[in-house]
Each structure stands twice: as C-alpha cells, then as structure tokens.
Amino acid sequence: MLTIGELASYAGVTVRAVRHYHAKGLLPEPERDPSGYRRYDARAVSELIRIRTLADAGVPLARVRDLLAAGPEEFAAAVEDIDRRLRAEIRARQRHRERIAQLAAGDNLALPPEAAAFLARLREIGVPEVLIEGERDAWILIAAQVPQHMPLFMTIKNAQLDQPGLSQGYLDMADAITWAPDDPRLPALADRFVEMVEADAAGNDAWEDEGIDIPDDLAALLDAVFVDSVPVARRLLDLIEERGWRGWTKLERV
Q1: Looking at the whole model, is its pTM more than 0.70?
Q2: N or C: which end of the chain has fewer CB within 10 A?
Q3: What are the pLDDT digits (tens) for 179-200?
Q4: pLDDT in tens, 6-52
Q5: Is the CB of residue 62 less than 8 Å from the CB of residue 44?
Q6: Fold entry, domain 4-103
Q7: pLDDT tens-digit profile of 62-120?
C-alpha cells in the first residue's frame, strides 16, 4: 500500500494535484489506515496516470470523469472532438503569434513591405518621426482601401524622393509643423510646394496613365487628418489654392 506522496511520485504528479483530483471527484478517496492516513493500491496509480494523461493532453477536468467511464466507441468519438478543438485553439494561437510578430515589426504592421521601405528612406534623409508617423497612418488607410495600387504608388513616391526638391519638401514640412497659422514664412513655403508639384509632371502623369486614383472620400479623410493635426495646414492649403492648386492628398488645378 502506498502513501499519498508515493502515489504522486509513481504517477508523476504533485501531492497537491492528487488532493485536487479527490476534490473534483475524479480519483476516489481510498480507505485510511488506523492512523487516519490515506493508503493507495496499484489500481489507484493506474487511475491517476490516466487522469494525468488526459489532463496533460488538454482535456478539461469537467470531461475527464466522463472519458474515464466511457466505452471504446464513445471514448474514441470524444477524443476526436477534443482533438478538433485543440487544433482550432492551435490555429487561433498561431494567428495571435503572427499578430504579435506584426506588432513587433513596427512599420510593417498593416503596411506592405514596399511602404515600410519608403518610410525607412524618409528616416534616412532626416525626416523626423512625428512626420513619419503621419505618413505611415496615411499609407495604412490607403493600403486598406486600394491595396492593388500600393506597388505603383510606392514606385512613384520613391522616384519622387530621388528628386532633391521633394526631399527638401519633406524637411520643410517637418519644420512647419510647429509654426503658428500666421507665421510669415508660410507664403514662401507655399511657393516652394507649388514649384515642386508643377515640376513633378512625370509623377502626376504616371498615376493618370495607369488609371488609378485615390477615392474622393478617402482623400477627404486624409485631408481632414492633415488639417486637424497640423496647425498651419488650413492656412497652407489656402495659400496653395491662391497659387492655382486645390487639395492636399489629391491635388487639382483650380
């Protein structure tokens, strides 16, 4: 006859687990010796190993009792059902792991690789993170709405970034984020912006030649984000319109 400690050792569990299985009604209480201690036989070891095996396999304790008492066919059906549930949980956990990996990937979260690479180029030329965050959020919205156009968008944007004017335009805008709406430097900034736009005829033509366009409602949303987050945005847009162009995300000649 075995003590509770010896039983636990044979079955590869803790004494606390044995007591827990007693409390759950999974392992019958044995008879006690004259001193009041539990004493177990070989059958208790076998039963405890079966309980431990089912529990280690992920079977809820609420179902272990039924499985222990089930016949061969019922047991096989129950195990198949449990296996399906475990496979579903594994798939769900794998999706969670992929999501966590995305969160750790920074710009790669919700963005295609080419867009993340473009943001990396902006960092390389010295664009501050506050401006890159806005750029990233805008491209996330665009990628969600028109993902099929993202490769071409990024090809055009990278070609534009090769031009010194556009690179400087990003840096100018980074400086202007902290300006007040009545800052006297804004007209000159608007002049440089319009010059840059008009010099980039090839980039504008590339979008039109491919027949792609950002939907009006998405453009309006992106413009609103720009206006709400940059103090000088509204004034800058007014100055740009005075110079013959309207909009921000979708620039059009007035």
Answers
A1: no
A2: C
A3: 998 999 999 999 988 888 887 6
A4: 999 988 899 999 999 999 888 888 888 888 888 998 889 988 898 88
A5: no
A6: Multidrug-efflux Transporter Regulator; Chain: A; Domain 2 (1.10.1660)
A7: 888 888 777 778 878 877 887 888 888 888 888 777 666 655 555 666 788 889 899 99
Residue 230 has pLDDT above 80, yes or no: yes
What is the Cα–Cα distance from 197 to 244, expressed in whole angstroms? 11
User: Among 111, 153, 119, which Cα is nearest to 249's?
Assistant: 153
In whole angstroms, give the CA distance from residue 9 to residue 18. Answer: 10
Residues 237 and 248: beta-carbon distance below 8 Å: yes
79 close to 86: Cβ distance less than 8 angstroms: no
Q: For residue 14, what are the CA distances in angstroms to 21, 50, 122, 154? A: 11, 15, 58, 60
Say how far apart CA 166 and CA 157 lie, in whole Å: 10
Mean pLDDT value across residues 225-251? 89
Q: Say whether 2 sits in a helix, a strand or coil.
A: strand
Closest CA to 55 of 65, 45, 46, 42: 65
CA 150 – CA 144 distance, rounded (Å): 10
Question: Could you tell me if residue 57 is left (phi over 0), alpha (psi between -120 and 50 degrees) or otherwise beta?
Answer: alpha
Q: Report, as an integer, the average pLDDT of 155-176.
A: 82
> Mean pLDDT over all residues of the chain?
83
Rounded to an integer, the average pLDDT of 148-172 is 83
Task: Determine the distance from the C-alpha atom of residue 210 to the mean position of all C-alpha atoms in its chain, rounded to a whole number.
Answer: 31
Residue extents of the structural domains in the chain: 4-103, 106-253
Q: Distances from the Cα of 110 to the Cαs of 17, 28, 140, 217, in angstroms?
A: 45, 54, 6, 20
